[in-house]
Amino acid sequence: MKFDMHCHTREGSIDSHVAIREYITILKSRGFGGMLVTDHDSYRGYRYWEKHQDTMPDDFVVLKGIEYDTRDAGHFIVIMPDGVNVRLLSVRGMRAEILSKLVHHYGGILGPAHPYGMRSSSAMFFRKIRKHPEIMRRFDFLEGFNTCELVSANVKARGLARKYDLPCIGGSDSHKAMYVGTAFTEFDRDITCNNDLIDCIRNNGIVAFGGKERAFLRHHNKRYWKVTNYTLKTLNRSASLLLKPYRKIKVLRMGLYDENIE
User: Fold this and answer.
1) Distance of alpha carbon 36 from alpha carbon 126, whole angstroms
2) Domains of the chain (ranges plus CATH)?
3) Which of 4, 26, 83, 262 has its CA 20 to 30 A from that of 185?
4) pLDDT, tens digit (0-9, with 9 covering 90-100), for 89-124
């Protein structure tokens, strides 16, 4: 069963131009059986599908994920079990270790998105991971192929996965229709719900992943400018600090607080 494991919808991500209905239509036409909705710090795209699923294309599996912005280690793809709704995952800025504790406490899994991608959002360009590489062992998988990254970044991601014996997923990270379905993850069984997906990844059920990187155009250079990355990191850190009191209260109530981390 073939999935696109990194999808941003217009209903859930402010920077996406693809409605979830269009996503499903394109993926079905390309032989995909499902998608994981991974909007930025939000479940709005998935909730929109849930509310309108009776009018959506049928015979296609839509699962609930999220791309979470940590304060100190970039973006992570998080997959929680069916029926588990943790509001804190919609509040950006947790540190990676707290995020890992939270996700695993509720039976979910997580892994770095595009670990060698854009410096402002990719784990391996953060001092936290460089200084404490053992943190990689807290994760359940990583994104070994991302359509929007350079070939060299995807090669490094796969090398990182081999080093830590982590399964790889592939995702298009599409924000535009032209890139939908340009990356895939194939599973060795039918996936019908989040619990199936979590169980499959934990039990080495990924049989293939990959795709085709997008053509690198001149305007893509701005993703690698120092000023771009500095600005985005500063904005993310500012938002994280602003939300810290709210996050801390929530984490305390869950019994997951660690003064050495948060």
Assistant:
1) 26
2) 2-254 (3.20.20.140)
3) 83
4) 998 988 999 999 999 999 999 999 999 998 889 999
